[in-house]
TrEMBL record, chain A:
This is ABC transporter permease. It is found in: Cell membrane. The lineage of its organism: Bacteria, Pseudomonadati, Pseudomonadota, Alphaproteobacteria, Rhodobacterales. Keywords: Cell membrane, Membrane, Transmembrane, Transmembrane helix, Transport. Residues 73-283 form the ABC transmembrane type-1 domain. It comes from Pseudotabrizicola algicola. It is a multi-pass membrane protein.
Automatic annotation (TrEMBL), chain B:
GO terms for cellular component: plasma membrane. Residues 60-248 form the ABC transmembrane type-1 domain. InterPro entries: Bact_Polyamine_Transport (IPR051789), MetI-like (IPR000515), MetI-like_sf (IPR035906). It comes from Pseudotabrizicola algicola. This is ABC transporter permease. The chain crosses the membrane at residues 7-28, 34-52, 64-84, 96-121, 128-151, 171-193, 200-218, 230-251. It is a multi-pass membrane protein.
Length: 293, 268
């Protein structure tokens, strides 16, 4: 019996591996191999298309100590973290509303309404914010037209704030879904228990609902943070090329200056930052939930 | 339940989400090349200008080839991945599934640049074919996610019944599993198609001399005179994606109804 079970297990393992092999092979060839190549490139040195294979960390030293690179990485971090905080904080009440205050039959309609803007052209949405916030844009021309201001506002365009608003709008639906899913999973009787035991609504929320939904909040944080730190379009269109972020710097090194090793070192550094911060978010969440368990 | 404050906030939020998109038709029909208030009159010139743009049609053709191929290949790969991860236990499963899903948590620029470095190093000419390679990579995780939920809601006993009645693995898959996950397959095709059509970074860096819709729109944004025609195009694109998504949502709901599940809402 034991033998037949293990034989069955082995055949199941074989079928499973066979079944996943086309998809896995594709990911290995087109994702794992290119990423490994980038790591190897980052250890070479070069410039203007010439590459010397000297396996040094010189590129990393330059990326992490050069003032230009540091300023750009710091800007990317500030923008991505602000976008993440803004997006998640404004998304939470929406997820809460849909999960707790919308009739079950209408929930999918609400989710549908929330997700539609996300599926409409990202480029056009970003460009629309340029049109809205621009010097001669919709807000300025509108306010001038009705006489509230005498000259165009300049603090709304071509700055980090404009980047944050645009990206927060672009990634808003991303934040709602994971929080909503986490809230849906909460056993409603726990909340009733909390209130039966004399907790106020606010305290029940603070002590039961919020901790139980933290998993969703962390997922939302990661889902927003990762693409925003690597965003290319918004700094280019909204920042007018004057506020480059990591992705723009990568393009310059990889293609315009044609220093692939340095570009690769930037890419690897960006991946490291993303991985470390993601790990930190997850660990903070464990800590946060720790005493409750 | 009463919560007027939250409801008002939710409606305000929807307005914030939709306001920029609402500007699209307003300025697409506005009779001025300058995108600003006050509006100066109604025109359909921008739609006509867009319609007459030959380069735009070529870019659209390229994009449709890319999105169509991407949707089919990613969904086929998604079927294999989802079936393997929901039905079988095997060594290295976590790592392999993790690798397949990795593009979801990697900034697209990194995916694009690492592919570009390799393609240039082995001198593969950049074209719409290389864009398809990249798009399949980033849409496969979505296909796996959508199809996994379709495969998960399958009742395993139906499959066993087919085996007991003498069907082989292939005919069981064709006769029992495929019809039951068909709605999942359709929504995966539509969603991969939509993502690929909208994707910009990979299309911009891996297309070489070929133009696709998103990179064409991007290049036109540099010329203020071309902007109104692009807003007209954007209006049409919004209508198309809303239609496609409504169809995807319809099939997703029908799939849930078919397998007897409960609707929990949402795509992801």
């Amino acid at each position: 019996m034991a033998r037949s079970t293990s034989a069955l297990g082995r055949s199941e393992a074989r079928s499973g591996l066979l079944m996943i092999s086309p998809t896995a092979l594709y990911a290995v060839l087109l994702l794992a191999a290119p990423l490994a190549t980038v790591v190897i490139y980052s250890l070479a040195t070069g410039g203007r298309g010439v590459i010397t294979w000297d396996f040094s960390l010189a590129n990393y030293v330059e990326v992490w100590t050069g003032p230009v690179y540091r300023a750009i990485m710091l800007r990317s971090l500030i923008v991505a973290l602000s976008v993440t905080v803004v997006t998640v904080v404004i998304a939470y009440p929406i997820a809460y509303f849909v999960s707790f205050h919308v009739a079950p039959s209408k929930k999918s309609l609400w989710l549908f309404l929330i997700t539609i803007p996300f599926w409409t052209s990202y480029l056009i949405r970003v460009f629309l914010w340029k049109v809205i916030l621009g010097y001669n844009g919709v807000i300025n021309s509108g306010l001038l037209g009705i006489g509230i201001i005498d000259e165009p506002l300049t603090w709304i365009n071509y700055n980090v704030g404009a980047l944050v608003v645009t990206l927060a709008h672009a990634y808003a639906p991303f934040a709602i879904l994971p929080i909503f899913v986490a809230l849906e999973k909460i056993d409603r009787s726990l909340l009733e228990a909390g209130q039966d035991l004399g907790e106020s609504k606010l305290r029940t929320f603070w002590r039961v609902t919020l901790p139980l939904s933290m998993g969703g909040v962390i997922a939302a944080v990661l889902i927003v943070f990762i693409p925003t730190i690597g965003d290319y379009v918004t700094p280019d269109l909204i920042g007018g090329g004057k506020l480059p972020m990591i992705a723009n710097m990568m393009e310059v090194q990889m293609l315009k200056i044609n220093n692939k090793p340095l570009g690769s070192a930037i890419a690897v550094s960006a991946m490291l930052i993303v991985a470390l911060l993601s790990l930190a978010f997850v660990l903070v969440n464990r800590r946060f939930l720790g005493p409750a368990r | 339940m009463k919560s007027p404050g939250l409801r008002a906030y939710a409606i305000g939020y929807l307005i914030f989400l939709y306001a920029p998109i609402a500007l699209l038709p307003i300025f697409a029909f506005n009779d001025s090349r300058i995108i600003a208030f006050p509006l100066s009159g109604f025109t359909t010139n921008w739609f006509a200008e867009m319609w007459a743009d030959r380069q735009l049609w070529r870019a659209l053709q390229n994009s449709l080839i890319i999105s169509g191929s991407t949707a089919v290949i990613a969904t086929v790969l998604g079927v294999f991945g989802a079936r393997a991860s929901t039905r079988y236990a095997f060594p290295g499963k976590g790592g392999l599934v993790g690798l397949i899903m990795l593009p979801l948590v990697l900034p697209e620029m990194i995916v694009a640049m690492s592919l570009l470095v390799v393609l240039l190093a082995i001198s593969v000419p950049l074209s719409i074919f290389t864009v398809i390679l990249g798009h399949v990579l980033i849409t496969t995780p979505f296909a796996v996610a959508i199809l996994s939920s379709a495969f998960q809601s399958l009742d395993k006993s139906l499959e066993e019944a087919a085996y007991d009645l003498g069907e082989g693995p292939v005919s069981t898959f064709r006769l029992i599993i495929l019809p039951l996950v068909a709605p999942g397959i359709i929504s995966s095709l539509l969603i991969c198609f939509t993502i690929s059509l909208d994707e910009f970074i990979i299309a911009y860096f891996l297309a070489g001399a070929d133009t696709v819709l998103s990179s064409y729109i991007y290049s036109q944004f540099r010329f203020p005179a071309k902007v109104p025609a692009m807003l007209a195009l954007g209006t049409i694109l919004v209508l198309v994606s809303v239609t496609l998504l409504s169809i995807a949502e319809f099939f997703r709901r029908r799939g849930i109804a078919k397998t007897g599940g409960k609707d929990t809402g949402g795509f992801l």
